[in-house]
Amino acid sequence: MNGVHLRLKQAPALRVDLRGVTPASLAGLSAAQIERLAVTHGMQTLALAELFAVSCDGAAAAGDTLMFEGDLSRFDRIGWQLAGGQIVVDGPAGDYVGACMSGGEIVVRGHAGLLAACEMAGGTLTIAGDVGDHAASGLPGSMDGMRGGTLVVHGRAGERFADRMRRGTALVFGDVGDFLASRLVAGTVAIGGRAGAHIGYGMRRGSVVFAGAVPSVAPTFVPALAEAAVAWQLLARAIARHGGPFAGLPARRIGRHLGDLSADGKGELIVAA
Amino acid sequence: MTAANPAAPLQRNGVVIDDTFAEAFPMKATRIVITAHNLTWARHAANSATGFATSVIACGCEAGIERELGPDETPDGRPGLSVLIFSMSGKELAKQLERRVGQCVLTCPTTAVFAGIAEGEAIALGKNLRFFGDGWQMSKLIDGVRYWRVPVMDGEFVAQETTAVTKAVGGGNLLMLATDTESALAAAEAAVRAMQRLPNVVMPFPGGVVRSGSKVGSKYPALMASTNDAFCPGLYGLAAKSEITPDVHCVLEIVIDGLTEADVAAAMRVGMQACIAIGAAGGLRRISAGNYGGKLGPYLFHLHQLLGAPEAAA
Questions:
Q1: Are strands B284-288 and B162-178 parallel, antiparallel or unpaired?
Q2: Which of A240, B117, B132, B290 is most deeply buried (CB count within 10 A of its CB)?
Q3: Mutation test of the interface with chain A: which of B158, B160, B161, choosing the one with the most A Cβ atoms within 10 A?
Q4: With an 8 Å Cβ cutoff, are B156 and A226 in contact?
Q5: Contact B116/B30 with Cβ under 8 angstroms?
């Protein structure tokens, strides 16, 4: 594979902030130049070479893949504000992976920490393992969560998944914690496993699809009497392409609940039978 | 209309192909896909939406059903129909589209409507119709495409937000000159059936056929078009200039609108071939075409060239 390969030498003592280490920022740099790039380690700054063994064939290009290898669970903000190119993490990733990304692709072949894909606006983030709390939500203190792109979590997700999300698609193959899609503004969320308590708490619009266990629906939602076969087919076909628990969605019948009536009440919980 | 040249007779199966050409014009077009619970209701909507759309002279647009679509060809997996709508400008096309979809598709039970062309300038499809929802409408962005879900009494009407406008060609035509009404109808019907098997074209007149072929202008200043007296058998011997021969008692015309010049040419070719197959034995005497001397439209479809006649190639 063409690109820049960063192999972790040893786990750092403190958390490392990897914002700014993207395919675009490394474009045109040689391996020696990449090794001298500074990253924050706790209160210090370190050269990338102190943490990683860097290898690349000639000068890196913006379209190249940036590959991290090792346990990066103490490395935060991988792919922060990524606008293009591909990042692969061959192992676990820390907090804020894919946060504020607007394009490109990130693949994490392990678990990810808190706030994955928060305020993501475009591109694709795929996590093979679990994600922590507040994935696809907003940065702390922010009014808006994920606003575009696609987040696919093959494992489980923590609490407040898709909190304040307003656009895009966020899928979890496994279980999710409490307050799924709380304060959801719009967008599509699909869950393949079980969901915790307080689903759609305060959601205004948007769709939450349950392909796995039947969820417990709050009394602030009302059952929908009308069919929505066309919209369901459009939505189900798009989600089904991701496979796993969603593969057979277009062929399944659905029940819908509309709410949250304590907010705008135009959201829908779609339960596939 | 120019006269066909009787000095250069090209005959196929006893049918004379006039050495003339059809003259066509640039238009703007879009394709929409109408789906429904079953094909019957999709056809009700499509027939209604393409009604009163025979000529831009007074209808605002020319439209027709292009073909049936199976469930595997539509975005929502239901049976449907593709509809082509042509107009003289993108602005008029947008106006006609919104009116027709709003009054004929939104109103029809179980229907949904989608764009049938992806490339081109976007015009509103469900973008403004959504306001019928009175605030209850919902938007859904799926794979980068925005759809509107408008609550209606049978559930919800789903419409893609926009469709695309493309350049197109309108006014391709064939004239079938026959010994009697029965023969002219048989030739015209066969030609329309052959053309309907092709993509990207519609024949906007009733049954695809028009009996009131027109020329530009009139003795009455208020009229921009009037009867094509040169091809009216009833005016043989009366009109100063006639294209009718004594054996011709009925003339019918097919007008073809297509997305490209090649589409119109292909439709005219298969239409002529269908007519030729009927031949003189079936009462068809001549095939001709209408034009304006080549001065108005940039697209000229020479009948001999379409049939690959050797003298045309030379």
A1: antiparallel
A2: B290
A3: B158
A4: yes
A5: yes
Q: pLDDT (tens digit, 9 = 90+) per residue, B80-133? A: 999 999 999 999 999 999 999 999 999 999 999 999 999 999 999 999 999 999
Question: Does residue B264 register a pLDDT over 90?
Answer: yes
* Secondary element (H or E) of residue A235: helix A229-240
Phi, psi of B4 (to 5 degrees): -70, 155
pLDDT level of residue B2 (50, 70, 90 thresholds): very low
| Diameter of chain A measured on Cα atoms | 64
Burial of B113 (0-12, 13-18, 19+ CB in 10 A): buried
Distances (CA, A) of B276 to A89, B21, B273: 68, 17, 5
Spell out the domains of chain A, with CATH numbers in brackets. Answer: 65-272 (2.160.20.60)
| pTM, 2 dp | 0.93
Integer Cα distance of B144 and B124 in angstroms: 16
pLDDT at B216: 85
State whether residue A228 sits within 8 Å of chain B by CB: yes
Amino acid at B72: D
Mean pLDDT of B247-269: 98
CA distance A228 to A252: 13
Which of A226, A238, A250 minimises the CB distance to B77? A250
Q: Which of residues 112-151 of A touch B (CB under 8 A)?
A: none
Query: Looking at residue B313, what is its pLDDT?
Result: 42
> The dihedral of CA B254, B182, B14, B236: what is its sign?
negative
Please state, as a whole number, how many other Cβ atoms lie within 10 Å of the Cβ of residue B241: 9
In CATH, the architecture of B10-24+169-313 is 2-Layer Sandwich (3.30)
Which DSSP category does B293 fall into?
Answer: T
Instruction: Give the integer Cα–Cα distance in Å for B46 and A269.
Output: 33
| Residues in chain B closer than 8 A to A187 (CB atoms) | 141
- Do the domains B10-24+169-313 and B27-166 sit in the same CATH topology, yes or no? yes
Phi, psi of A221 (to 5 degrees): -115, 150
Q: Where are the alpha helices (DSSP H) in B36-89?
A: 39-49
Q: Which of A84, A72, A73 is nearest to A7 (CA)?
A: A72
Q: How many CB pairs under 8 A join A and B?
A: 46
Second CATH level (architecture) for the domain B27-166: 2-Layer Sandwich (3.30)
Query: What was the ipTM of the complex prediction?
Result: 0.93
Q: How far apart are the first and last CA of chain A?
A: 43
Q: Give the whole-number percent of chain A exceeding pLDDT 70.
A: 98
